[in-house]
Structures are given as structure tokens and as C-alpha cells.
Amino acid sequence: MVSHFGELNICRLPLDPRQTLLAFDQGDLLALDYIHEQKLLQPHSRVLLVNEPFAAVTCGLTEAVKTLTGGVPTLWSDSHIALQALAYNAQHNDLPLADFVPAHETPQGAFDLVVLKLPKSHRLLKDQVARLLPQLAAGTTIIMPVMVKHLDTPLFQLLESLLGPLTTSLARKKARLVLAEKGEVGGGESPPAQTQRWSVEGLGLTLDHYSGVFSSTRLDPGAQVLLENFPDGSYQHIIDLGCGNGVQAIMAAKKWPQSQVVGVDESFMAVASATSNALANGVGPQCRFITNDCLTDMGPQSADLILCNPPFHQERVVGDQIAMRMFAQAAQVLVADGELWVVGNRHLGYHAKLKRWFKRVQQIGSHPKFVVLKARL
User: Fold this and answer.
1) How far apart are CA 101 and CA 244, in angstroms?
2) What is the DSSP string of 332-361?
């Protein structure tokens, strides 16, 4: 990654030699060049980066911030992989490690410069801006790099309603900057992260969702199908892989009260939601929720049941890479006679793909849109 701040080797995580996508985009480069050209870094500057997936701009600014201010930037993100990427890319470029704040917490200002990567979720965007504004110094510049194809009229109008008058840069290589400046000093006290509470009909559960968690107002249809086709065996060590709000882990804990249940998700907000929901629904001591890159570093042969409702996109990038990583690691973590139960859209063809790692793959449940599969080693 080459910018006015220097040349860095920025990698996507998890590392994969077959990976062809870059860890940064033209919007990131445009933001770095704009910061340099406008001399936005000053000796007093506190810098906040928001929603960076692989810490490219964070690392790009770290050396300059350290030299000017003696401090480091702060990265505010919901992604465990972003935290890993921050550490990896800083180390491999001999940079100081920037501060990291998980998305369900609020970074404490006052910040003078903000680079905000716009999330796909408008609800998350509203939540982040509401908590961000009180943490800004007078005259803070907010830079929002975006690919032109993602900047539609409703999004621009939403940003205006949240941030006031906006300007935009000229487009360069299909990227553009949306710019806002906040003249007033922030109040210092941010509202708590937004949550939404709703009940799951027929299951007797009440769930709370932080704003970044998938399917925040109703049960995810895939999860519903899996719950309707839940395993009937006897299990002691259960993993809910990609746990989201924790509903599958909670139902597993209720069905097998002698078991230990671990929920794993890449999202800090999901893990915070699931932890709260397990406590609220009476199975908190039985469940443990952790952020992780799938099942990385979890012990071999440590689970006899894995429940999985895998995502098929990461923000705006669609593909089955995450699901394939989940399946491969599940095969390593299961005991010899353990089971992986997967729900997925029919068109994704998981039945065939699971056979790369599992000898026996059986369709358990059927739905016009989804299938439930049981895989055994």
C-alpha cells in the first residue's frame, strides 16, 4: 500500500496464499492522501479510525501520529479479525500498536480527526454516530471514504441527517470522500450502545441485540429451520459456531442441561449480545461466549456437537470462504464420533462441499429455501 505516508505491506486476515482481494481499497488511499494534502495531522491530534476491516489506514497513519504527538491512533471496530489484522500488520511493518476499542464500548475523546468506514448496516451507523459525536473536539474533520457504487441518495441523506452539511471530494478510481466538520465541542458523555429487545414466539425467549448483530428484530430464518430440526442425541461439549445472538447456544443449554456450551463469533457485539441473552434466559453459568476467527486455537477433539449457521458474506463481500473455514476447523475440533449440524441456503451446495472433510453427510431437514445437514467424520 503506497501513500504519501509511505509504503506498507498490508495483509488480509486470515492469511491465505490463494487470496486475491486486497486489504485496502481506493477509498483508503484517497483518505490518506487527503489527510496529507490538507495537513490534518497536527502535534495535538487525536485520531480515530472506525470500522476498518484490516487496519490499513490505521497502520498508514500510525508512524506519523507517533512522531507528531507521541501517541497512537485508535481503531474502533466490531471485528475480531480487525483486531488480529491490526496486530499483524503493525508487527510486520515495525509500527507501534494502535489502541483498539470493541464496538459495544465507546472510545473516549476528544478526537480531532475521524476516518469512518461506512458500515452496511444503517442501524449500526446511527448508533456509532450518536456515540461518536460527544467524543469530538471543536473543528473535528470526519472523513468517510466510500466506493462510488455504494454512495446512493438514501445513504447520503442519512449522513446529512446525522452529521449536518456534507461536502464530497472528486472521484478517483471509483472512490470518493464524504466530508463533515463539527464546529462545536462534544459533550464528553456518550449514550450507551443501542440495543433492541424482542421475544421469540414459541420458544419462550427474550433476546437483546446490539446494533451490529445480524437479524436484530426477528429470528433469522436459517436459525429457525435449524431449531426446528435440532439434534436428539446426548452431548456434553457443544459449540455454537457463528453464534450471533446466542439463540442456538441457549436452546442447546436448555435441552442438554448437563452440557457445557461455547458460543463463538467474530463480532464483539454478537458475543456481548449472546452473553447477555444467556444470562437473561437462565443458562448463563452453562454458556461461555468468545470472539474468535472461527475455531482458531481451539483444542482438537474438544467437542461432540457443533451447530453452525454460517454467514455467506462479510460486509459487502459475498462468498463461501468463511463457511469453508468453519467446516475445515470443525473437522479438527470434533471428537471421532462427533457431529456437525449445518443450516444453509439450498443454492450454496454445502452437501457436496462438506464432503471435503466429512465422510458421511446426511440431509436432516428440508425447507423451500434451506437445508439442514448432519456431517460426521
Assistant:
1) 20
2) HHEEEEEEEEEEEEGGG-HHHHHTTT-SEE
Q: How many residues does the chain have?
A: 377
The distance from CA 129 to its chain's CA centroid, rounded to whole angstroms, is 17
CA–CA gap between residue 255 and residue 269 (Å, rounded): 25
What is the rounded CA–CA span in Å between residue 181 and residue 119? 20
* Residue percentage of the chain with pLDDT more than 90: 85
Predicted confidence (pLDDT) at residue 73 exceeds the cutoff of 60: yes
Question: Residue 151: CB partners within 8 Å, gap ≥ 6?
Answer: 176, 178
What residues are paired with 344 via a beta bridge? Answer: 371
Q: What is the pTM of this model?
A: 0.94
Q: Do 138 and 205 sit in the same domain of this protein?
A: no
Q: Each residue of 21-45: pLDDT tens digit? A: 899 999 999 999 999 999 999 999 9
- What is d(CA 328, CA 147) in angstroms, rounded to the nearest whole number? 33
Q: What is the CATH number of the domain that holds 153?
A: 3.40.50.150
Average pLDDT over all residues of the chain: 93
Q: Are residues 117 and 242 in the same domain?
A: no
What angle (nearest 5°) sits at the alpha carbon of residue 194, between those of residues 191 and 198?
145
**Greater pLDDT, 339 or 185:** 339
Q: CA dist 11 to 14, 93, 97, 107, Å?
A: 9, 11, 16, 25
* 21/96 Cα distance (integer angstroms): 26
Average of per-residue pLDDT across 204-221: 87
Domain of residue 207 covers 195-376
Query: Cα separation of 375 and 377, whole Å?
Result: 7
Q: What is the C-alpha to C-alpha distance for residues 202 and 304, in angstroms, rounded to an integer? A: 27
What is the domain count for the chain?
Answer: 2
Shared domain for 39 and 83, answered yes or no, is: yes
